[in-house]
Amino acid sequence: MFLFRNANLKGCIVDILCEGGRIFKIEENIENFYNVPEYDIEKRVVLPSLIDGHVHVTGGGGEGGFTTMVPPIKFEKIIRAGVTTLVGLLGTDCTTRSVQNLIQKVRELSEYNIRTYALTGAYDYPSPTITGSVKGDIVFINEIIGSKIAISDHRSSYLDKHELLRLASECFLGGLISGKVGELHMHTGRLGKRQLKDVFEILEESEIPIKVFRPTHCGNLVDDAIKFINMGGYADFTAGEETPEILDYVMKKAPLERITLSSDSNGSIPIWNDKKEVVRVEAAEISGLYENIKTLVKDFNVDIDIAQRLVSKNVSEALQISNITGEIREGLSCDFISIDEDLNIIDVVSKGIIELKQNEITRKLNFQNF
Predict the structure, then answer these.
(1) Are 75 and 14 part of one and the same domain?
(2) Does residue 369 sit within a domain?
(3) Residue 216: which domain range?
(4) 86 and 27 fall within a common domain
(5) Model confidence over 134-153: pLDDT tens digits?
(6) How many Å apart are CA 229 and CA 298, to the nearest integer?
(7) Within a domain: residue 250?
(8) Are 222 and 344 contained in the same domain?
(9) Within this chain, do residues 347 and 312 fall inside the same structural domain, yes or no?
(10) What are 261's strand-pairing partners?
């Protein structure tokens, strides 16, 4: 058990008692009958810790040759970004990287107290898998909750509408059998022409539910994303310099509850010329996720409780893990951050364990200085 004192939760100063990694009680002035360890949050605002639904944990990139392959993500960067739950995935390169390597990395992070999930597949079609099928991976591998694919991008495998439907069906059935979300996480490219046209046609012509389809990088196709959200789907936007302005616009056109934000961390950001040639390659950072939330609050006057939903409750509901995490309430995992008056992250708590305390990492890692 652990007792967090003096947390500012939605304007009320409360104590949070954690037992077995879950929130047992939220109440004012909890009596410490059993003399459990305490930590004073000093009346700082607490928010649900962040859930990042799109992280290249093994590193992404490679579009500019071997020197442009982004390194794997580090535990410290995840925690400093306020993230305690994430979904790992592959991208362009599933030749030098593999689903097996992905599972190894999410299990490593899990052993360091990060709640981790993964997607099988990559940009390629047929999808790379471990068991031989997308459905099999979802059913038999605990961490895998869906599949990745690229559509409307010159780096995709140009699967046709019927192949996309069959892939969605595998995700749907795998999710049904395993009790997981079974999402088809669809990369959409800035240079893509078809955008979500194939998805809209599939939804009109088939019985596959809209919840299976999860377009990401939706800043590339704002109008289609708004249409998709208003049809009942979840659309994922990628943190970036222009994203807060896009989100402010989208939130006025579509239900807030179906909008999510992810970092694309450790994925490459290729800069293309008009011939679709790589000019240079940059990389996304996981810190961009919370930075976008701060920008929404400070520059666009979005209430912090509304802005943070994009990286907590909305994501947990989209991933069908809202019975585990995504809010600060009794019965859920004890996952939260505390912030100062300038919205900077001071503490990060994952499953009841303080991983960042007064802006210092508390955990010692293997090969930390290697």
Answers:
(1) no
(2) no
(3) 47-317
(4) no
(5) 999 999 999 999 999 999 88
(6) 26
(7) yes
(8) no
(9) no
(10) 237
Residues counted in the chain: 370
Q: What does the DSSP 8-state code read for residue 341? A: T
Distance CA 293, CA 307 (A): 6
Q: List pLDDT tens digits, range 72-127.
A: 999 999 999 999 999 999 999 999 999 999 999 999 999 999 999 999 999 999 99
Query: Do 213 and 126 share a structural domain?
Result: yes
pLDDT attached to residue 191: 67
CATH no. for residue 31?
2.30.40.10
CATH number at residue 105: 3.20.20.140
Same-domain status, 3 and 131 = no
What tokens appear for 145 in the block?
């909750």
Cβ atoms of 145 and 115 closer than 8 Å:
no
Q: Are 328 and 316 spatial neighbours (Cβ–Cβ below 8 Å)? A: no
Q: Which of 201, 195, 190 is nearest to 215 (CA)?
A: 195
- Span of 15-29, 94-108, 181-195, 278-292 with lowest mean pLDDT: 181-195
In whole angstroms, what is the distance from residue 344 CA to residue 290 CA?
9
Task: Return the H-helix or E-strand segment holding 80.
Answer: helix 75-80
Cα–Cα distance measured from residue 241 to residue 292, given in angstroms and rounded to the nearest whole number: 8
Kindly state whether residue 97 falls inside one of the protein's structural domains.
yes
CA atoms within 13 A on the CB side of 138: 28
Q: What is the pLDDT of residues 224-267, one digit of tens each?
A: 999 999 999 999 999 999 999 999 999 999 999 999 999 999 99
Give the whole-angstrom CA distance, residue 158 versus residue 231.
25
Catalytic residues: 264
Q: Structural domain tally of the chain?
A: 2
Say if residues 175 and 146 touch (Cβ distance below 8 Å).
yes
Please indicate, yes or no, whether residues 307 and 226 belong to a single structural domain of this protein: yes
102, part of any domain: yes
Could you tell me if 77 and 57 are in contact, meaning their C-beta atoms sit under 8 angstroms apart?
no
The model carries a pTM of 0.97
Closest by Cα among 51, 100, 29 to 337: 51
In terms of phi and psi (left: phi > 0; alpha: psi -120 to 50; beta: otherwise), the region of 148 is beta
For Cα atoms 22, 26, 32, give the angle at the middle one, nearest 5 degrees: 90
Instruction: Report pLDDT for 165.
Output: 98
pLDDT band for position 192 (cuts 50, 70, 90): confident
Which two structure tokens, joined as six digits, stand for 219? 């800043």
Q: Do 165 and 203 lie in a common domain?
A: yes
